Amino acid sequence: MSKPASSDRNEPSALKALNRRAEAILRARPAYKEMVDFYLVIFRRQIEWRSRLEVHPETVSAEQAAKCLTEGTPLAERFDPGIVPDSLLELWGEMKTVFGHGNDVLRQAVEKIDDAEKAGGFVPGTWLSEQRPGRGELVADAARLIGIDEPILASLAHAVTYPHWELVSQGWLPERRLDEWKRFRCPTCGGPPGLVEFRAESSSGVEGIKPAKRRFMHCSFCSSRWTVLPLKCPACGSSKSGDAKYLFTTDEKEWRIDFCKSCHHYMKAIDGDKVHGRVHVGLELLTAVHLDMLARDKDLKPLEVCA
Ligand SMILES: [Zn+2]
Ligand SMILES: [Zn+2]
User: Fold this and answer.
1) Distance, CA 226 to ligand 2 centroid (Å)?
2) Residue 18 lies in a domain
3) CA geometry: angle 183, 211, 257, nearest 5 deg
């Protein structure tokens, strides 16, 4: 399929942006170094492999996409994403090697996966092609069958499926179409949002007046990004004035925790204007775990629980 034109989708600039952001994060939060070093290898592979991956999403016309967006139907519920099992399998082999070099636990997990594949009880190509948000039982069942920890298998599967779904998302929904959506589940795959981004409009149109910040949701399954109403709560739908609250940390100017006073759900929110280039959801979520602890100290609940 054709490649998107945006400069951040271009391999060298995407790798440069990833490295620069990782360096900035580690300067501020060195405790994440070991985890970042490991996952950077995965994120780099995903970018480097982009041009080799194969997906053939069903053709969706502008009218068909607009109809789905207006009705609130994620495209993957109506159209075939055209995920190619052989392409998944190739990247699966590469990611298993990366995981196998991680540490003893990961190496043993990869060995068990290999054993299960050889024994014929686990067929990764089909299994990977069936991964969807809300189908956590696929991972849970396979992890039980193979005898490894569910988060390890989920992480390995995600490393493989994410760049494929990223291509599907880019093919189906270039960002110009997403203003019609304004819902909280992902317009491409239907998954829950993983991260909020607020970012200034390019210009307010009036000299001397700062441009307004727009609010976006990011999907961590397929990389889609879409706009939502600025104050509405994704969990309970409240848009009552005074319900939308924020928690800040003094030493991290790019982050805040958005929460709802009514239902106590929260999401992590990043200021896109303080991150150069496009927000890399995987890297940001990986290095914002301390914010979850902060939120839980305040008796807030992560949005994913209800989603
Ligand atoms: Zn999605
Ligand atoms: Zn709420």
Assistant:
1) 20
2) no
3) 50
Q: How confident is the model at residue 4 (pLDDT cuts 50, 70, 90)?
A: very low
The residue segments making up the domain with residue 248 are 192-306
What is the CA(230)–ligand 2 centre distance, in A?
13
Ligand nearest to the CA of 238: 2
Give the bridge partners for 55, in sequence order. 83
Instruction: Quote the number of domains for the chain.
Output: 2
Distance 180 CA to ligand 2 centre (A): 22
The answer to whether residues 161 and 199 belong to one domain is no
Same domain, 164 and 198: no
Q: Give the number of the ligand closest to the Cα of residue 166.
A: 1
For residues 144 and 197, membership in a common domain is answered with: no
Residues 56-87: pLDDT tens digits?
999 999 899 989 998 999 999 999 999 999 99
Q: How far is the CA of 233 from the centre of ligand 2 (A)?
A: 5
Measuring CA to CA, which residue among 221, 171, 223, 173 is closest to residue 197?
A: 223
The whole-model pTM stands at 0.91
The answer to whether residues 255 and 288 touch, using CB atoms and an 8 Å cutoff, is: yes
The ligand whose atoms approach the alpha carbon of 261 most closely is 2
List the one residue out of 132, 116, 133 whose CA is nearest residue 124.
Answer: 116
Q: Are 175 and 184 in contact (CB under 8 A)?
A: no
Does 10 reside within a domain? no
Q: How far is the CA of 25 from the centre of ligand 2 (A)?
A: 30
Residue 236 CA to ligand 2 centre (angstroms): 4
For residue 125, the SS3 value is helix
Residue 25 lies in a domain: no
Asked whether residue 4 is assigned to any structural domain, the reply reads no
pLDDT tens-place string over residues 183-196: 899 999 999 999 99
Confidence of residue 7 (pLDDT cuts 50, 70, 90): very low
